[in-house]
Q: What sequence folds into this?
């Protein structure tokens, strides 16, 4: 296991037998990736891609059919490794007869924290996630977003080194999403490692250092987010003014698109052809107003990859 | 206390808290309490020399019956609810072994049942006192035996609920309870020269299997001895408690094995 990896997944697979006919379903098909210390790692995929199954295997809630998982160099079944991990399940549901304080005392006691240590930590975390004002109210009366906040707080009760969050931003209002993002970035600043899944791509773009994309149980990409987004930057959009009609016509062959916008002309060309087009425009007496790389959004790439036969560029 | 004992205690205490805040449980408990107290009024309706017998029998019956119903409900519903509502994801992802979770759940249930038995016994003692019936040592033995029987019933409930739906688990658990209460009868019929197993010999293997597998719960029922004002030796109580403990160990071990291998999808 590399020194800087806190999580190493190798050839992980899970097969379920479902229904009366025991039909075999390959939920996860031999995936491999690692998560490095101190990074925010995004685990992306459409619904049913295998994200939650993978995360449950990391948490030892589901036993893999094949492959291995090492958390801090140990098996997820090892209590020493689990002690260093905090987990927020997807759409969490907690004991609704308890208050947030009681719930967190319960979880803290499982970690072997003494009462005084728990009390201080609970106070801090409930304030961090914004539910301190309902700390003694039964969870039964909580909205989905409030339960999600308690869920995040409980995942941090033992000050874990690795925080695994399954769809942490779902069920939250825009303010809640922003607060959660700040907390996740705060965890990174504090030296923690964050592994989180999402199908909301804008969140991943803002937060992650590296990502993995899973679709139909297979990994389609693992690596830095920036490289992945750059790979999607295939075109450049130029806006120029003073372009003679015959000049625009001459450039059309090297452009994907040429469009007249009043006194300006918009030209879309490949990244490779862009410098030559700019040069020709200038030499022809036109003024280049802007040169903007046209990036596919993560969403565009994701949709393309998820399409039948689609692959990462 | 070791780390494992602390974790088991945390789960047990949480189970106790859950039951204490469960309306169905509280309703059953209050219902049983009411019936024991109502035996005072019911005893007024019978002839004078039967009044003591009524409060005696009613008390023991309701301690036992409500204990069985509560152990089935807590055993089946609480464990299943944990799986259905997926609260178990948060618990088992913590540094807690799966067998510790089952042990904690079971210990919590036993704690709940002991509380039920103690509270109802106190109410029964009050009723006996008001009816001028002295609390005899054999009553205490009867209550200990009820608690031992309930420990088996709740272990059966935990085992079934670790892999089955609540309705089926409830039916299976009550089935085991009823067959268990009749094991002595099955054994007598197997030895008898006439009766079911003679007229239908093909059922004999089934009867032998039932007698061998199901716990003989009749040994925990000493209401007949109490009625006949006979004493029950402490050795009988000790043997019965040991018998219950053996069954609990087997049942909870099976539940732990089932839990150890299952996926929480």
A:
């Amino acid at each position: 296991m590399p020194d800087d990896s806190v999580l190493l997944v190798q050839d992980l697979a899970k097969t379920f037998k479902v229904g009366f006919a025991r039909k075999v379903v390959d939920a996860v098909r031999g995936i491999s990736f690692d998560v490095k210390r101190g990074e925010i790692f995004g685990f992306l995929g459409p619904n049913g891609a295998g994200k939650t199954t993978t995360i449950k295997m990391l948490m030892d809630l589901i036993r893999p059919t094949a492959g291995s998982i090492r958390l801090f160099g140990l098996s997820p079944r090892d209590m020493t490794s689990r002690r260093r991990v905090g987990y927020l399940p997807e759409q969490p549901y907690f004991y609704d007869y308890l208050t947030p304080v009681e719930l967190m005392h319960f979880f803290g006691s499982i970690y072997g924290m003494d009462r005084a240590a728990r009390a201080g930590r609970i106070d801090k975390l409930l304030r961090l996630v914004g539910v301190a004002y309902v700390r003694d109210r039964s969870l039964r009366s909580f909205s989905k977003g409030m339960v999600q906040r308690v869920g995040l707080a409980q995942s941090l009760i033992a000050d874990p080194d690795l925080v695994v969050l399954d769809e942490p931003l779902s069920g939250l209002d825009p303010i809640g999403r922003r607060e959660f993002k700040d907390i996740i970035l705060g965890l990174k600043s504090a030296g923690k490692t964050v592994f989180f899944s999402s199908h909301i791509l804008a969140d991943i773009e803002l937060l992650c250092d590296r990502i993995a994309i899973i679709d139909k149980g297979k990994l389609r990409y693992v690596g830095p987010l920036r490289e992945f987004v750059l790979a999607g930057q295939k075109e450049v959009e130029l806006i120029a003014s003073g372009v003679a009609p015959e000049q625009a016509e001459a450039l059309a062959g090297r452009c994907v698109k040429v469009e007249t916008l009043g006194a300006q002309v918009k030209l879309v060309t490949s990244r490779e052809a862009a410098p030559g087009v700019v040069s020709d425009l200038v030499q022809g007496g036109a003024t280049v107003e802007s040169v903007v790389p046209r990036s596919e959004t993560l969403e565009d790439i994701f949709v393309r990859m998820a399409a039948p036969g689609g692959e990462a560029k | 206390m070791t780390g494992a004992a602390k974790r088991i205690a945390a789960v047990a205490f949480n189970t106790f808290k859950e039951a204490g805040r469960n309306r169905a449980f509280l309703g059953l408990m209050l219902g049983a309490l009411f019936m024991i107290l109502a035996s005072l009024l019911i005893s007024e309706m019978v002839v004078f020399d039967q009044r003591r017998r009524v409060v005696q029998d009613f008390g023991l019956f309701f301690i036992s019956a409500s204990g069985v119903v509560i152990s089935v409900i807590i055993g089946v519903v609480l464990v299943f609810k944990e799986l259905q509502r997926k609260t178990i994801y948060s618990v088992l992802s913590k540094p807690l072994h799966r067998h510790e979770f089952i042990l904690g759940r079971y210990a919590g249930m036993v704690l709940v049942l002991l509380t039920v038995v103690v509270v109802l016994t106190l109410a029964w003692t009050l009723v006996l006192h008001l009816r001028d019936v002295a609390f005899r040592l054999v009553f205490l033995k009867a209550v200990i035996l009820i608690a031992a029987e309930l420990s088996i019933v709740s272990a059966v409930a935990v085992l079934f609920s670790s892999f089955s739906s609540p309705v089926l688990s409830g039916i299976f658990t009550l089935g085991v309870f009823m067959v268990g209460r009749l094991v002595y009868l099955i054994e007598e019929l197997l030895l008898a020269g006439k009766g079911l197993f003679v007229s239908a010999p093909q059922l004999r293997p089934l009867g032998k299997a039932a007698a061998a597998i199901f716990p003989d719960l009749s040994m925990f029922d000493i209401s007949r001895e109490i009625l006949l004002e006979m004493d029950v030796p402490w050795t009988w109580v000790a043997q019965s408690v040991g018998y219950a403990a053996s069954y609990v160990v087997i049942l909870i071990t099976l539940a732990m094995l089932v839990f150890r291998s299952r996926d929480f999808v």
About this structure: Chain A touches chain B at residues 16, 53, 56, 59-63, 79, 82-83, 85, 87, 89, 91-95, 97-98, 102, 106-107, 109-112, 151, 154 (CB under 8 Å).
